[in-house]
Structure formats: structure tokens, C-alpha cells
Write a structure and sequence with these properties.
- This protein has helices at 21-24, 32-45, 75-78, 105-112, 124-137, 164-177, 186-194, and strands spanning 8-12, 50-55, 88-93, 116-122, 141-150, 154-155, 161-162, 182-184.
- It has 195 residues and is α/β, with parallel strands linked by helices.
- Strands 3-2-1-4-5-8 form a six-stranded parallel beta sheet, sandwiched between helices. The protein has a two-stranded antiparallel ribbon with strand order 6-7.
- Strand 4, helix 5 (124-137) and strand 5 (141-150) form a beta-alpha-beta unit.
- Helix 2 (32-45) packs parallel to helix 7 and helix 5 (124-137) runs parallel beside helix 6 (164-177).
- It is globular.
């Protein structure tokens, strides 16, 4: 796997509010946070750009709402911000896609001449997947760090209920099989970016 020298790592919504399992329900992939941290470390250590995305929920009861502690980045993310030698962008959004945030992610990537992005973060099937899909639609070479994401059990229409793991796998199949992104592991990314 080839990782561009200026490939941007897009860290999506790694916020304290997602620790409130009473609100979200059961999650999958307990190793995701370690994998996200490892990716940030490699990206910063190799001088590659990192984008930190924060979801500012407009829903009054959301653990991700502005002014509430859950809106803050998790500690391991916050302590890494500003530590790399490469370019860094912080953006906020109120919808699923990081491409619809402030400042404009697409404009920043274009200005920096970045053709490739790596998407990691929370939730696999929500903001991480939506960002990857939109990135693919916009012509970026998108790598989706599957095991550096996680999600929660979810109920949909007709009383259908799926576990977090089933939902995460379905996202990966749709992204990869649909040609939106290449779904890869943290180990693969670390190996390719650190070489």
C-alpha cells in the first residue's frame, strides 16, 4: 500500500461524549482508541498533515453539544494536537460529513495539494463513513482505517436491530465494495506510512 508523503489523516469526532454508553448503548472494537492514537503518532512523526474534526451537535440532549464536557476531544487526542511538524487543521461541523464543516476541508486539502486522505474516528457508520464516502465522491484517494473506528448498536426501520459489529462490517463492505474507499487496518497504515 502506498501512502502519499502528504496524505492527510482525518480524525473524526473523537470526543468525550462518546464515552457515555448510557446514551449510545453497546459499542464494538475496544482497541479503536489505541489505534487512533497510533495513527496520529505516526502521521505527526513523519510530518504528514492531520485534521482534527469536532462534532458540535445542535441537539439539546446530545453528549456532543457545545458547552458540555462531552463536546471536548478525548484526552489522548487533545494532548496530541499541535505536536506534529506537518500541517494541522481543526474544523467543526454540525452534520455527518467533515467536508461540510468550518473551515472548508476540501478547500484546505486543495490548497495544500493533498490527493489522499485516511479516515479514522467515531462512529464507523455515521460521520467516519459519510466523510469517506464524500471524499471518494470528490475524487480523493480514500483509505478507511477500519479498526481505528467504532460504533454502537442501532435500531432502524421495521424493528430491525443490529449490533455495533454487524453495523461496522456493513459499513466496511459498502465503502470497499462500492469503491468509495479502500478499507485497511491500522497495522497496514502504520507500516506503510512509517517506512
Amino acid at each position: 500500500m502506498d501512502i502519499a508523503e502528504n496524505a492527510a489523516l482525518v480524525v473524526v469526532d473523537v470526543q468525550k461524549g462518546f464515552e457515555e454508553l448510557g446514551f449510545w448503548g453497546a459499542r464494538n472494537n475496544p482497541g479503536a482508541d489505541d489505534n487512533i492514537a497510533a495513527l496520529i503518532d505516526v502521521w505527526q512523526g513523519t510530518g504528514r498533515p492531520v485534521v482534527f474534526v469536532r462534532h458540535d451537535s445542535v441537539k439539546p440532549g446530545s453528549p456532543l453539544r457545545l458547552g458540555y464536557e462531552g463536546n471536548d476531544f478525548k484526552e489522548y487526542v487533545e494532548e496530541r494536537r499541535g505536536k506534529g511538524s506537518g500541517a494541522e487543521l481543526f474544523l467543526t461541523k454540525t452534520v455527518n460529513s467533515a467536508f461540510l464543516g468550518t473551515p472548508d476541508l476540501g478547500a484546505w486539502l486543495s490548497a495544500e495539494g493533498i490527493p489522499q486522505i485516511v479516515v479514522a474516528g467515531i462512529q464507523t457508520n455515521m460521520c467516519a463513513e459519510t466523510t469517506a464516502r464524500m471524499g471518494g465522491n470528490l475524487g480523493y484517494d480514500v483509505l478507511f482505517a477500519y479498526d481505528a473506528t467504532y460504533t454502537f448498536d442501532l435500531e432502524g426501520p421495521f424493528g430491525w436491530r443490529r449490533s455495533a459489529e454487524e453495523i461496522a462490517q456493513a459499513s466496511a463492505v459498502s465503502l470497499h465494495g462500492g469503491g468509495f474507499a479502500r478499507v485497511v487496518t491500522t497495522e497496514e497504515l502504520v507500516g506503510a506510512a512509517g517506512a
